[in-house]
Amino acid sequence: MHITESALPTNFIRQIIAADLSANKNNGKVATRFPPEPNGYLHIGHAKSICLNFGTALENNGTCNLRFDDTNPEKESIEYMESIKRDVAWLGFEWSELRHASDYFEQLYQYAVELIKKGLAYVDSLSAEEIRVYRGTLTQAGKESPDRNRLIEENLDLFTRMRAGEFADGQYVLRAKIDMASPNINLRDPAIYRIRRIHHQRTGDAWCIYPMYDYTHCISDAIEGITHSLCTLEFEDHRPLYDWVLNELQTPCHPQQIEFARLQLEYTIVSKRKLNQLVTEKHVSGWDDPRMPTIAGLRRAGFTPKSIKDFCERIGITKQNSWIEMGVLEYCIREDLNTNAFRAMAVLEPLRVVIDNYPNDKVENLEVSNHPQREEFGKRIVPFSKTILIERDDFSENPPPKYKRLIQGEEVRLRGAYVIRCNEVIKNADGEIIELRCSYDENTLGKNPEGRKVKGVIHWVSEAHSLAAEIRLYDRLFTAPQPDNEENFLDVVNPNSLQTLINCRVEASLKTSTLENRYQFERTGYFCLDSDSTNDKLVFNRTVTLRDNWEKD
Ligand code: ATP
Ligand code: MG
Ligand 1, atom 29: nearest CA belongs to which residue? Predict the structure, then answer.
């Protein structure tokens, strides 16, 4: 079957755009933007917005800008900007243009002057606290500021002097003059400029007044010729302000704001402020800690761009806020890695097995397939020798019913190698098992012996040929499904979200493998090489277990 774009499931945004295109609105152009504030690393919620904005452009042969919404310099940084560019590119998207709200500071200022000249903005000397009180409540109209009817000339003079740095921070604000009695509080003369003496990461000290988000966003969209300004539901009540500004000003165009539901993912947090707190208070090792729902964290954990994009498509775009199960994201990465990850063998908690009837110095280079279904992945060499390591829990002295692994006096198959039988269990003075003495059947390489059925298959590595590894097993970062709804989300941080195994041994081929760094470790899970690896010790992160262990909850 030929898969075309029309095979994509529809959603209300796709429908709006299809209708706009057939009406030849915006001359048939589609222009979107992804507008992060560079005050933290991007998270999985941003991935939803990125896939939507860039995806909408791609589907419609349109454009999508990456625009930094950098109007709040005290929380923003170049590090965050760089991380955002890296993450968007890693997901596989190319922005048409890289823009910054700060590119428009002069234009934004001139537009504000235009509003003042039209009698639609005034300089107010109320304090922030007074403005809050004057604003009123949902049930009570606001009260007009005594400065509301200041003369246009005076407003122009004061605004010029605000820019020139003649006043202290907070001494004045510029407010849009809309309607203090509006049922929509966003329209009760919102502040559009404030005085802030803060060094800006791009404009330096050129400005001591900074425009507010709502005012900046709509004008930036218009300057860039955005056709569809896609944002999350909390901006629905801000849309009248978005439209008011663009209706009152002579901007190049008037983009349509369309809101969609934010992603909320169970057992995690999608708020940069709270993620920042996890980092600064050291609940995690950094923004790219593999437990973090950041794109950098997911990447380090071994997630692929494909799995994240697949997830964003699956959850769909709607106007209803809902919680998505973590299992959906895990399903997407399992699907991808099951098809695309190389297989390898790693022993997480090793138990030594000596094969008594195997020649002392013999080493066999066994050829093992890299993927059971994908021949094109080829084979690798796995050395076999007299002393091997198996997983401690693949041997049992008191096997539960249906135990298919190794027990004394019985046989098991070593994956890709021989059938062995356990003859003797060696223990130390404390009664701990330290070694198994086994024998092998040389006629069982790659086939079952005549008339004998060997049910169990276990993984192994040759002790002398294996490499030391540290393996980090991750679990959910929170113990409650909706940490955001707890009184304090820090109270439900999972204390057991990281388990570090330091005595692991992995097969030698992992050292030289440069092509791939994501693996299915046979029977154990999906893993990814971590950047903490050194020449002496490889470090792997568990991306996801083989199956969903949480299913039964
Ligand atoms: P946070 O609360 O994490 O700081 P934000 O909305 O303040 O998020 P921005 O940098 O302003 O972060 O977000 C950039 C874009 O990503 C915005 O258009 C925003 O609507 C969108 N976005 C942010 N979080 C989510 C989410 N959870 N789901 C979908 N889109 C999101
Ligand atoms: Mg924001």
Answer: 262
